[in-house]
Specification:
With about 190 residues, the protein is mainly α. Helix content is about 60%, strand content about 5%. Strands 1-2 form a two-stranded antiparallel sheet. Strand 1 and strand 2 form a beta hairpin. It comes from Pseudarthrobacter enclensis.
């Protein structure tokens, strides 16, 4: 009987240690996962800095990937283009997604600290956005849309702010609010 006491005590100690470790890990993960993540106060500045490191073509490609929901591809592209570390690239792409930045050339970036989205600009090309669900398909074509703006509209729609998404779509196209709402309803959930 005495030969079983020591292994039993060791087993009890191991079970208690595993239980305490699991509890500590559960608290750590539970604290992060339960509350919605708020963008850090420096995220807008990080987005401006990250955007300034990109050429016009790289900027367009990264925002196209973000708008398509391909965050890993956007991080990889940013990593390859800038040479920043993987963690820094992940943070930069997250900031770019949370705080979309228009492309500014090197001289514009120095002159204008921040530009607002209220006054849409016209682009030399026509942008087509298509949304479909089942047999229903809607298309919006405008020279006031681009990948970046459409990405913001999709982000608003995915976050449940359909009215703001519809308002932004009408501001950057020639469709009515009713048509914009119909279009937003068809975007992926």
């Amino acid at each position: 009987m005495e030969s079983l006491v020591i292994p039993a005590l060791i087993l009890v100690v191991v079970v208690l240690a595993v239980g305490l470790a699991a509890r500590a890990l559960g608290r750590r993960k539970g604290g992060r996962g339960d509350a919605p993540q708020q963008p850090s106060p420096g995220a807008a500045e990080l987005a401006r800095t990250a955007s300034a490191k990109l050429s016009e073509e790289e900027h367009r490609r990264i925002y196209a990937l973000i708008a398509q929901g391909q965050a890993m591809a956007a991080i990889k592209l940013y990593y390859e283009v800038t040479g920043d570390g993987l963690r820094a690239s992940r943070d930069a792409v997250g900031a770019l997604a949370a705080h979309p930045q228009p492309y500014r050339g090197p001289e514009e970036a120095a002159e204008q600290p921040e530009d607002d989205d209220d006054e849409p600009q016209r682009f030399p090309y026509r942008y087509r956005a298509i949304a479909s669900k089942g047999d229903v398909t809607r298309e919006v074509s405008s020279n006031m849309l681009n990948d970046e703006i459409y990405g913001r509209i999709r982000t608003l729609a995915r976050n449940g702010d359909t009215e703001a998404a519809a308002a932004a779509l009408t501001r950057h196209s020639d469709i009515s609010m009713k048509q914009a709402r119909e279009f937003i309803e068809l975007l992926d959930d």
